[in-house]
Amino acid sequence: MFDSGVGGLTVLHECLVSHPQENFIYVGDTGRFPYGPRSIDEIRTFAFQIASHLLSLDVKLLIVACNSATAAALPWLQETLDAAIIGAVHPEAEAAVQITRNRRVGVLATEATVASGSYSRALLNLDAGLEVFSQPCPRLASMIQSGDVSSLELVEAVKSYAAPLLEADVDTVILGCTHYPLVTPMLQRIFGRDVTLVNSAREIAREAGEVLERKGIRNHSEEEGRYSFLCTGDVDSFVEVGARFLQMPFENVRNLEISELERTMA
User: Is residue 177 annotated as a catalytic residue, yes or no?
Assistant: First the structure.
């Protein structure tokens, strides 16, 4: 699986809980983080480079654990690459449609994800009568990526992004970036218990299990699986922030040179 940074570790956590017998390789593209402000074409290029690298390692399922990359590139990756590939948007949309009572759904996401319209399309394809309110959160992923999950500045930023959705009287909010579940307690306090938060990590892990079962590629070994990490930026900072969020030992971490990824496009 891959993400623009450490946010996808929320997906890895859920997958380790749900599929403990599987082996996982995680790529954090920290050297090119954040994806949110970038163009769709640029994100698509990054996604193709990382996907191609992971597929060269003979993985059986590729998880795009990044909402911006999913929104920009998932259908294209599925058409271009001969592999089982899943992403973030569709499983969350399915969950939100089943959960909402007043059919007013909010989406918190990066600028690139909101601009793509991917959540609105996915939700309305499932229920054309929904009202969808999408809120870009330009600073949120970067603040969380830096390790900030509790500052007054973060609280004020979250409140400002939540305000339009509260005004719209949504009863369900999709956390449309894998970084956002890392501040779920804060988000739940701000939205209140009457609003259900849809966690991308949990929904992606559920879909991963369905794909593994459907394709007959689930690992039935009774032994616990292994996990390893690659990052395109500084390894030490990736380990420090990642270990804090995942709350597990960070071993088998190595740097993946961006130049190595760029050669896949040559």
Answer: yes
